[in-house]
Design goal:
single chain, alpha+beta, about 280 residues, 60s Ribosomal Protein L30, Chain: A, four-stranded mixed β-sheet
Length: about 280
């Protein structure tokens, strides 16, 4: 019984000492700037700065490859679970690039080639900053490609139209109906052409072996007769179109366009119409 009574006397003393130590600890904690004993009570009373706070979350950043002078626009993605305002920063960016602290947007144009180790960070002002590292490779500038040149092929000229006239020996003018009939369709075809006549070649041919005293003069005369006839048939068509008139020997003449009329002999004329480019 004596021992039991003694224990009961010591019990209240131990409890008092314990309460004293706890009260002293609380007192010294409250005097400290880092004491958090009363934070739950302050948080419940509406003081958010005493509430528990989570650090922000910064998404992973993929490696970047850019060429010198190429415009850059890279947005860092981050959020804060508590809705705190965030501030961004970055270290080791290539020269010419900068980050906007409020938005986390990296913009600019790199000015130096190299391999850069970049550290991007975000902070909510209440927790240690959260960082992500990534690689930024800046390559050499690419020479601009020459502008494509559109080459327009030259317009193809319409093929010339040729016609022939035959003369009866001794005729001094183009009065032969056969000669007119041979020339007229080709003259009409040439005048109806869409591209317009650019020039006309008229060559007369006379064979000296047929006893002609002056084949050169006679052949040129035949050529002029044909030229005058065409101007008379359609003066508007040939207005302004130059005529090249020349007399040649029969040995210089091309193959007849109408072989069936070769029996008319040694006097004929060849007309060629050339057209302007479309």
């Amino acid at each position: 019984m004596a021992r039991y009574a003694e224990r009961r006397r010591k019990g209240p003393i131990s409890l008092v000492i314990l309460l004293f130590l706890v009260a002293g600890g609380i007192y010294w904690c409250l005097l400290s700037e880092n004491c958090r004993l009363l934070d739950p009570i302050a948080c419940r009373m509406g003081h958010s700065e005493y509430c528990p706070n989570s650090p922000p979350v910064l998404s992973a950043i993929a490696g970047q490859t850019t060429r010198i002078g190429e415009p850059v626009s890279l947005a860092l993605e981050a959020h804060d679970p508590d809705g705190d305002a965030l501030e961004f920063s970055a270290q080791g960016l290539p020269p010419g690039l900068a980050i906007a602290p409020g938005s986390g947007m990296i913009t600019g144009a790199p000015g130096e080639q190299g391999d850069y180790a970049v550290s991007a960070s975000v902070s909510d002002g209440r927790n240690p900053p959260v960082s992500r590292r990534f690689r930024w490779l800046v390559g050499p500038q690419i020479a601009p490609e020459p502008e494509a040149q559109i080459i327009t092929p030259p317009a193809e000229m319409a093929p010339p139209i040729a016609a022939e006239a035959y003369f009866f020996p001794g005729s001094a003018a183009l009065k032969d109906d056969i000669a007119k009939d041979l020339l007229r369709p080709k003259v009409e075809e040439a005048c109806a052409h869409d591209d317009g006549i650019e020039r006309v070649e008229v060559y007369g041919f006379v064979d000296a072996e047929e006893g002609v005293a002056d084949p050169g003069t006679l052949s040129e005369q035949r050529a002029h007769i044909v030229a005058d006839y065409m101007r008379d048939v359609n003066p508007d068509c040939f207005e302004g179109a130059p005529f090249e008139v020349q007399g040649l020997s029969m040995s210089q003449a091309p193959e007849p366009l109408t072989p069936g009329f070769s029996e008319f002999g040694a006097q004929r004329a060849r007309v060629t119409f050339y057209f302007a480019a479309p």
